[in-house]
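On to my pick:
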Amino acid sequence: MSVTPVVPTSMQAVCFTDPGEPDVLHLETLQVPQPGRGEVLVRVMAAGVNRPDLMQRKGLYPPPPGACPRLGLEIAGEVVACGLLQDGTPMPAQGSRVCALTNGGGYAQYCLVPAGQCLPWPTGFTAEQAAALPETYFTVWSNLFMPTPPAQGARVLIHGGTSGIGTTAIQLVKAFGGQAFATAGSPEKCALCEELGATAINYRTEDFLTRIRELTHDKGVNIILDMIGGAYFNRNLKSLAMDGRLIIIALQGGAKAEQADLARIMTRRLIVTGSSLRPRDSGNKARIARELHEHVWPLLDKGAIRPLIHAVFPLDQAAQAHKALEDGQHIGKIVLAVSSA
């Protein structure tokens, strides 16, 4: 006979009052929220740390209307309560272990999540491994593989190859028959990219445009997944093959590109696009989740691909976790371990 989980009335959550450096983060005691229609309440066991969290903490990335204002976009844990069904969306069973893309509030002992944004833990995964999946896998899949995956043999350049996004993208490109290239900033990071299946380019010692031209015999790559933005824009355009596609998902190198070569876009029929995951509505995120469950979760279940964990911090060390991510020395994901209330 199943036992209904006992849910306390209060919980610990990471908060900040004013934007600033990592030290503004602190724990507060808050009321445990109640699930509304189409929502589940998850007892959080682990939460992923991502660059949008850093930007929000600095006051540079406000949450969209209606989203939880607290940090934390991905979690893993146990469903302890369910709201009413909505629009036929399947509801995870109470007591099941899920990982989920949240709408905020993941740095806490309990978190509300739309049911459609939940996925089961892959076979044999720990909470930390499961929590490292949603943000990166939703981002990579929606940008590289929807509405259709790259053609077999497609050449894909991934900037930031040892980030959570980068390590995920390399593995998925290889798993679905593409040829991956990745930039990284040290011999150790380049070696990890090679181990995952990419041809690595050390951007500190080599010009990635020159190397891409050499490696592809002047053909260029078919797709670029870019987190840098303005600083790389024109070199990205010159790295693309005819009918190539540049996908911009972050702006670590600035939001503006000087003297953009628009003629090259026209004459080589290039597509330049960009996206942000957090503002998408729950229906869109649920569609991504369904595709991941169908196409990617079987690969995770059998160990063909895996998340890379750089470090795990307890919830009360969220500030140290942010500092570790900002230092840029990580390889893979940084995760918070969350103890029960």
About this structure: The chain has a mean pLDDT of 95.
